[in-house]
Amino acid sequence: MTSSKPIKIRGPSHCAGCKEEIKHGQSLLALDKQWHVSCFKCQTCSVILTGEYISKDGIPYCESDYHSQFGIKCETCDRYISGRVLEVSGSK
Ligand SMILES: [Zn+2]
Ligand SMILES: [Zn+2]
């Protein structure tokens, strides 16, 4: 499997979602950034992503929104062709 899960970390930083300082409590490290746990949400439906997520261009989405926006449906069975797409970090 190639899905991603946020990693829980601690320590002062700035949230990539709301840009506020993360003072204490739990934050997430995802997409190479830190987020308040409550700020790491699907860009489309705002569901808080505590488990699996899919990112595109550094923006997190829940699985169903990712598929509905970027997924490819099988013409025959009308199911999304699976293939969790992970963000490919280009030039680093
Ligand atoms: Zn935040
Ligand atoms: Zn969503």
UniProtKB/TrEMBL annotation:
Gene3D superfamilies: Cysteine Rich Protein (2.10.110.10)
InterPro entries assigned to the protein according to its UniProt record, in alphabetical order: Actin-binding_LIM, Znf_LIM
SMART domains hit by this protein: LIM
One Gene Ontology molecular-function label: actin filament binding
Keyword Zinc attributed: yes
UniProt keyword terms in alphabetical order: LIM domain, Metal-binding, Zinc
Stretches assigned to the LIM zinc-binding domain: 13-72
Transmembrane regions: none
GO cellular component annotations of the record: stress fiber
Protein name: Actin-binding LIM protein 3-like
Annotated organism of origin: Leptonychotes weddellii (Weddell seal)
